[in-house]
Amino acid sequence: MKKSTKIIIHILFWIYSTYPDFQFFYICISLSKHYTSTFPISIFIHVLVFYFFYFIYVPIIIEKHKKFNFYNITTGIVFMILLSIVSFGIFYINDKYIFQNEPINLSTLDYTVSSYIIRNTFVFALYAILIRLTIDWVNNEKEKNELIQQNKISELALLRNQINPHFLFNSLNNIYSLVYNKADNAAKSVLELSSLMRYMLYESNCDKVELKKEIDYLNSYIALQILRIGNPDFVKFTIEGSAKNRYIAPMLLIPFIENAFKHSAKKNKSSGIVISLDITTDCIKFEVINDVYSKKTNKDDVGGIGLGNVKRRLQLLYPSNSSLKIEEKEDKYFVTLIINEQ
């Protein structure tokens, strides 16, 4: 909590809490003029009690033990009794020695003053405990949330950085095979990789990117893979809806496409990989379907970095508004990712 906010809370509290003192002060004046000093003395005592409990009792006694227990409660009551005695002493000294009035006795007015002192000592002590614990709780929650957010940012950065080296490793292997076979499109593949790396290094280091840029990145990756495979009809990528003014976490979709290329069978057929991106007003639906070999595919092997990486990013970025379904049936691999934006 900001310092200015704390100051405002204290100012509002004292405006609210001193109003009864004004009323009591006028009652005292109407009954006996020698109680004209009651108001400033009572304010002084209230401040003494309040800030004793605010700055000493709560941080040293309560927060040290992290909870209320018999020791805390007993100590608080003892402090209240001691401060009540101090308050009586202050009133007595003020009346008898400073203003040379009659000392406190058991008259009706003095009984009222006495009960007023005791009651307000307990009341302001409880006020101090409540306000201090509330402010400290707000500060602790804020610090906790900031720590969670920092951990989230660090974890996301780590997860995203796991993708980059893996992607570069795979791409260099693909280009190496083209160069080794002296393919004519080897130089073009280097340019495609350069474009991809530019996006990864300079445009994806943020929480969200424009969906259009992410689509361009996917298209560049697919083009690079097509150069390696040599079959321009191997991938069918369709987009429904408009990507304008839509955003998505960077490099969230690429592991599924990498996985499709890695495990796809019959790379000489048409539409061996079918990718669709359906963009509606309130959600983004991403689907990838590819043929696989007859042996079972390890579902945890997504792009070589593990399905756990992708799932964890979804939990951090879209904790309650995303769903991921992965299944394999009849030699086909199906991935469906839905991100709700409302």
Task: Fill in the keyword field for this structure.
342 residues, alpha+beta, Heat Shock Protein 90, 2 domains, two-stranded antiparallel sheet, 9 helices, 7 strands, 13% strand, rod-shaped
Description:
- A hairpin with a 3-residue loop joins strand 4 (273-279) and strand 5 (283-291).
- The protein has nine helices and seven strands, in the order H-H-H-H-H-H-E-H-E-E-H-E-E-H-E-E.
- It folds into two domains: 3-145, no CATH class; 183-340, 2-Layer Sandwich (Heat Shock Protein 90).
- The longest helix is centred in the middle third of the chain and has 73 residues, at 108-180.
- The strands form two sheets. Strands 2-4-5-7-6 form a five-stranded mixed sheet, with helices on one face. Strands 1-3 form a two-stranded antiparallel ribbon.
- Helix 3 (38-65) crosses helix 5, helix 5 packs antiparallel against helix 6 (186-202) and helix 6 packs antiparallel against helix 7 (211-229).
- The protein has helices at residues 3-17, 19-31, 38-65, 70-98, 108-180, 186-202, 211-229, 254-263, 307-317; strands spanning 209-210, 235-240, 247-248, 273-279, 283-291, 322-329, 332-340.
